[in-house]
């Protein structure tokens, strides 16, 4: 996305992990809806459809807007982002017996096909 400032054009590049989310209105949580093919999330094999997003880089994701969550996940290509996820088959809210998945992914440019 080109930006002009004082006559200088700069191209700002953001990258992601290739996850699409949906808002589970009954819980106020974002769940994994799917993946972009060949993305770091899809290639990880760890993230599954229906998983609940708990944190992004240690910041709670519950009760945030989709825009806020996207801004937390997006960043410069080649940088990392760490997600904490509750598997789809676990009950909310998480408790001391819950299995929490934590994964660090590398952001990269995502091409929709």
Automatic annotation (TrEMBL):
* Domain PDZ intervals: 7-89
Q: Which InterPro entries match?
A: PDZ, PDZ_6, PDZ_sf
Q: One Pfam family, short name please?
A: PDZ_6
Name of this chain's protein: PDZ domain-containing protein
Lineage in the entry? Answer: Eukaryota, Cryptophyceae, Pyrenomonadales, Geminigeraceae, Guillardia
């Amino acid at each position: 996305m080109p930006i002009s400032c004082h006559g200088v054009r700069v191209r700002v590049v953001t990258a992601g992990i290739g996850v699409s989310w949906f808002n589970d209105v009954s819980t106020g949580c974002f769940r994994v809806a799917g993946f972009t093919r060949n993305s770091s999330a899809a290639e990880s094999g760890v993230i599954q459809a229906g998983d609940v997003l708990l944190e992004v880089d240690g910041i709670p994701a519950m009760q945030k807007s989709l825009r806020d969550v996207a801004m937390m996940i997006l960043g410069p290509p080649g940088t990392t982002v760490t997600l904490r996820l509750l598997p789809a088959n676990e009950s909310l809210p998480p408790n001391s017996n819950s299995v929490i998945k934590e994964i660090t992914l590398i952001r990269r440019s995502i091409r929709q096909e």
